[in-house]
Request: fold
Amino acid sequence: MNVRRRLISGTAVAAVTALGLGTLSACSSDSAAATNTDKFDVVASFYPMAFLAEQIGGDHVNVTSLTEPGQEPHDLEISAKQTAALQESDAVLYLKDLQPSVDDAVAQSEIKTKIDAASLTTLEKHGNEVGGHAAEHDDHENEELSGLDPHIWLDPVRYSQVAEGVGKAFEKADPDHAADYKTNTAALVKKLDALNTQFKDGLANTRTKVFVTTHAAFGYLAERYGLTEEAINGLDPESEPSAARVKELEKMAKADGVTTVFYETLVSDKTAKTIASDANLKTDVLDPIEGITKKSRGTDYFSVQEANLKALKTALGTK
Reply:
C-alpha cells in the first residue's frame, strides 16, 4: 500500500464556499488563473496550509490551493496548469512528504519562497495506540517517512509553531507588509493558544482517557492532552481490521469505559458502526480537518476543532 495513503484520512478538502474566504475562491481544478496577481501570491497544498496563509496574509495575499474541493490530499496529481501557476507564484506553503506530486513540483520549481510546514515543528511516529503508551506500528512501516505522522495541525500547539514560522517567512518574502503579517500572526497564535487552553481544561477531568477512532489521525492531539487513541485501522483509513483487533478493541472498550467509536465525515462508517454495534457502543464524528465541506461541523479550522472537543468531552465523560 502506498504509504502516504496510510497516513492521510479520506476526508475531503476545503469546499471554498464554506470558508467564506474570498481570496480562496480560485481554489478549483484550474488554479493557474489565480496566480500572478498584484498581491502576494501564495500557493497552498491543501486546506490547513491555505487557512494559515489566509489568516496570516489577510488582504495582502492571494491564496490558491493545489487540492480541489472534495479531493483527497494524498491523491493529488498536479496538472500542467497548476505547475505553471506554482512557477508564477511568490510563495508555496506545503507539508513535505504528504503529497508526492507537490513535493516534486516544488523541488523542480524556481519559486523563491518555499515554506515546508513540517520543518517548522516536530513530527513523531504514531500508530494504533498513542498518548499514554508507546506507539504501536503495523506491518507497513514507512521506509521513506519512518512512520512519521503528518497530522500536526490537529495539535493547536504544533499548528501555532507552524503559524509563527509561516509569518516570519511572509515577512521576509514580502517586507512591505511585514508589520501586518507580524500582527496577524500574533493574533492567530493567540487564538490557537486559547484553543489549546480550551482543550486542556475541557479534557483535564474525564471518566476515561481512551478513545477509539477508525484510524490514527489524532496522535498529536492525544499526546498533548494526556489521552490514548486506539485506532481500528492504525494509520490506514481504508484497511479492514483483523478479527483479533476487533476483539481486542471490544475488550479494551469494556475495561477502559469507552462509550464511542469515532469515524470521519466523508469516510465510510461501516466498520465503526459494526464494531460499535457488536460492543454496544455509540458512534460519532471526529474530524481530521483536512478540508471543510458541507458535512463539516463548522466553517473553518477553529469551529471544527471546537466541535471535535465537544465530541471528545461527551465520549470521554467530563466529571
